[in-house]
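[worker-b] picked up task from shared queue
[worker-b] task type: protein-ligand structure
[worker-b] ligand name resolved to flavin mononucleotide; SMILES cross-checked against name lookup, match
[worker-b] sequence length check passed
[worker-b] input payload:
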Amino acid sequence: MSKLFTPLRAGALSLGHRVVMAPLTRMRAEPGDRPSALMREYYTQRAAKGGLIVSEATPISRQGYGYAGAPGIYDDAQIEGWRAVTDAVHAKGAQIVLQLWHVGRQSHPDIQPGGAAPVAPSAIAAEGYGYATHGPVPFSMPRALERHEIPPIIAAFGAGAARAKAAGFDGVEIHGANGYLPDQFLQDGTNRRTDDYGGPIENRARFLLEATQAAIEAFGADRVGVRLSPSGTYGSMSDSNPQATFGYVARQLDALGIAYLHVVEPRIKGTQLIAEAEPVAVRYLRPLFGGTIIAAGGFDGAGAEALLEARDADAVAFGRAFIANPDLPERLRLGLPLNPYDRATFYGGDARGYTDYPFHDRAAA
Ligand SMILES: Cc1cc2nc3c(=O)[nH]c(=O)nc-3n(C[C@H](O)[C@H](O)[C@H](O)COP(=O)(O)O)c2cc1C
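[worker-b] inference finished, payload out:
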């Protein structure tokens, strides 16, 4: 008996099965960072009865950008395009939450408003590349945020959540993973602050918890999720004591009563599977967080089933498999073969590698 295809409640969200679509940046928004008709088609294809979709990461401000072509949620003019997406997803019987994003130091002046330096807790640069409109650019040295600049960014998370609600989303997910701004505050490899946002874990977690609280005020705790990537190294991240850091955060989020905790397993480095390692992060956090846990990172159907069987998580999010298989839940349920993905069309472009992956039964599409 498959556990993947049993119903689940996550706060106010009620899922018909446990195959979640992971957040996936695809950079196909319209000018003005508005969701496009092509994006609506892509999400409509991947919506199926009882499913939960986490949207691509969506910046809460222009400063929050590291990838040109990502859709925004920082302007009321972006609500209408998102409304078309949520309406279409709901019409197919699925639910969708918006992932709220600020990249922090993972950016470059060519992507920032006014050509400014990206911002971060501390002036420490990451390795890697962002995407400007003219192509990839290496992450540059960030400027450390002044203490007084932090509350407006927290408020922008709240405003983004309020716009997401106005656009018909079923909830929001704080992007606290993969070395973006909340993660940069959280881990001590990137946070050398000496004010109340740096130093001991209670201070380093403040930014993430306040952003979460701001989203809760807009949406209610039972419609807010948080994504974390304990021990993930993407974005040049490190922490001297990840168990203490992420254990503390999991307990605090538990106390806030959020809808779910979304955990990216550290066996994934960026988008590459570095080892056939066991899922360890969910196993460690499970006793510390009483609510729903969604695991992500390198799962196939059998791996997901085994994880649920072991009770280490309640649902599993699939990334690359969902890019290439619009009908992934159906394929997993029926044990059908999966389409391979095309990495070259992941970030930016048109319908190719986006909305042209075949369904297993074209008539059903
Ligand atoms: C093209 C691409 C874009 C991604 N964009 C995001 C994103 O916007 N937000 C996020 O939290 N993770 C993002 N990820 C990570 C995925 O959500 C997921 O954690 C990762 O792909 C591992 O899962 P998988 O092995 O099922 O692909 C992205 C991954 C890929 C391949």
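[worker-b] attaching auto-annotations
[worker-b] Residues 150-166 form the longest helix (17 residues).
[worker-b] releasing lock
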